[in-house]
Structure formats: C-alpha cells, structure tokens
Predict the 3D structure of the following.
Amino acid sequence: MKALTRQLRTGFSSKFVSLLLVWIIIIFITLHNFATKTEIRFQTTNYNFYKHRIRLWNEGRCIDSPDGKRLEVYFCDPDVEQAFSLDSDHKLIYERTGGCVGYSKSEEGSITNQSLHLQECDASEGVGYFDVINGSYIRLRSSQNSHLESAPHFITPLFKIDPQLLKYQKVCINGTVGLTKFYDDRSRVILSEESFFQEDRKILKNAVIPPSNDSCDFKACGFNRRISPIEELPTDQVKKCTKPWECVTLVVKTARRPHLVARLAQSVRDSYGYDLPIACYDDGPDDYPRDIKDRLAQYPLLTYVVSDDEDLGIAEGRNQALKMVDTKYFFLLDDDMVFMNTTDMQTMIDILDTTDATLVGGQLYHSKNWAALLKFGYFGGTLRRLGCFPGTCSKLNQTVPNFPRCFRCELNSNIWMARTEPILQIGGWDPELKVFERKDIFIK
C-alpha cells in the first residue's frame, strides 16, 4: 500500500512538473509575441514629408490652425492651405505661417493632454521634434520625451469622457489637438500629399455651385439644388441584358474572411441556379489552408485576389476589385451578405438598362432602410455640416419611369448596382479613407 501511494505521488508530481513546463513555455511565447508586435507597432518610419495634410483616420477631418496660433480639428478645405512639413531636423512646420508645432506644460510640468500650438521655429524651448511611426502616427521624439515623461506621446485630438455614457465624446470641429498616450484609432492619422488631395477634391470643387438662398451660405450648399429627375432612355438606346452573368459582376472587399465569400458564391448558385462573376479583393495575408483554397476553386467565375499589402482599407480594396470588372454593370456587396430566393437583381438591371440612372440601391432583408437624401446646412446650430436623412427619398415624389415603387435618392447602404464606367471615371472610392467611404463616393 505504501509502495502504491508513493507511485501515485510520483506520477502526480511528474504530471504537475510537465504541466508547469508547458505553461512556462506558453507564457514565454506570449510575451515574445507581444514584445515583437509592440516593436513592430512603434517602428519609426525614417522619412520627412513636404506639404502634406494631416487627416484624422477615424474622423475624416484635418488638423489645422485657423487662427495661426493653436492646433485644432477642422474641415479639410481645398481652398485653404492646411499643409504641414516635417523637415530634416524633425520640426513640424505649418506651411501657411511658417511656424513650428510646439507643446505646452501643465503647472506640474506634465505634457500629457496639453494642447499643441504654433511658435517660432528658433525658440529656445517648447519646440516639438517628431517622428512618423508606421506611416500612421506622429510621435514626439523619444530623445526629447525622455526628460519630460517616460511614456511616448502622440499628436491626438484631445477628448473627454462623458460621465453619463462612460464613453469618449466625438471630436468636434475646433476641438483642441494635443499630446496624449497612444490610442490605436484616435492617434492615427493619414498623411495626404497636397497635390494628391487637390486632385481628389477637384471633382467635388467643380461640382459645387453657388448657394441658392441665404439660409446656407457656404460653397457646399450648392449640392442642395436637386438634379433633374431620372429619365427613360429612347428605345433605340435600350440594350437589354438577358444573361446576367454576362453583364453584372459582384464586387466584394474582404479582410481574411474567404469562408464568407464562398458562402456568398454558393448562395448565388442556390438562389439562381447559375453562378455570377465575382471580383473579390482580400488584403491578406495569403496563408489560407488547402481546404479553403479548394473551396474557393469550386466557383469558376470567382476571381479571388489576395493583396501583398495588409490592411489597405475598404476603399482601396474596392478600387482594386473594381479594376477586375469587365462587365458593363457591377453589384457592390459586403462579404457577409448572401443571396436569397427573393433577391431581385433583375429589377436593378432593368432600371439601368432602360433609364439614365447611374446607380440603383438595394435594401437588406429585415434591415433598416438607409436610403437617404443629403443636405448641407447648419440645422439649427452654428457648425456647417452634411445632414443625412434616411427614409426621406419618397418625399421628393420622383419615381423611376416604369418602376413606381422606386424613388430617386442620394445615398444608400453598401448594397447597390452601378454602371462600371461612370464610377471608374470619378476615380472610384477615395483610397485614403480606410472607413467612412460611403458618403464620399455618393457625393462624387
């Protein structure tokens, strides 16, 4: 009995030691991976830039200095010089005034959550020296930061926590820009070269017409003038699409979700009894197992391209997918959508075939109707903004010829069919918009 007890204890001890070793190895690997990711995350991009706008990644607005003194969140105005340059000395220069970005300190000497301002570049103190991190973050140089505070500091719009909702408030126009600790989304910026920015906005600038009344007194108000109703095409211009697989391509942007794209392709086959061309762009990496690749190969009309660059964003991914389209129409879908037996794609085709409409919006089953009218104005406040009014399209009372249940509209959710050429002619989606790309293309 004693021998048996000793044997059990010995076995227990061996198992315990083995489990302990396994946990030590797991912890070591986890810490190593964390350290590696952290190192990659804060890798310095050693370059300077000249005349670039600093745009907020999650807001789509620009960092500017309207009064030439402090840095603020402001509209990206193509008629105003809002560009910055990072020179070889790592000074961040505001081109309109030639001033350098400097930092403030609290009474305790802290720079955290303190505002940024413009000052003389040859000032003895307070001038900031900055690095670009991963091409997406602007950080106060570590050598300069070390004598101030140990944690790295990044250029970020300052924000407060709503005590009732216990969440961060949205950054408003004229909101202060300062130095904060690292925030993955809020500290992230897009550096837009001025010439590229102007070229991208040229279409919008040319489309703007003078305001029609005094209630809206800024340039974008010209968009409030409604365009002419949709017209029926002359009979000799109508070219009917009788084989959808020859005139429509599904355009899908995905991010490492090939199983959803395969599900979408299968739903088309199950609903219609045939396949449709699908142009799918996946911003990688291409490390999918054999069973996934075999599953995608079951759909001969599916062109599935995996990018060499990760996380290109929705807009650029859709642009790449659109380049693969060789049909006269394309149908934009998200990767998690599926076709049903009631999916009426033919009506969308018929509208494009018989009218001068450029785009036809759809609606998801059991989902809110996001089709909306757009209008620029103040809307009872003092800030200029774009108003979006879902469910109001029928108020115009402009039905599509021969389709009395369809109304002309100005915005839709990301489920729509369009003529391929006109979308290519306006440059597709803005590639610098990682998110919030929908309104931009509808305005264009």
Q: What stands out?
A: DSSP finds ten helices and 25 strands in the chain. The CA atoms of residues 278 and 375 lie 34 Å apart. The first helix runs from residue 2 to 41.
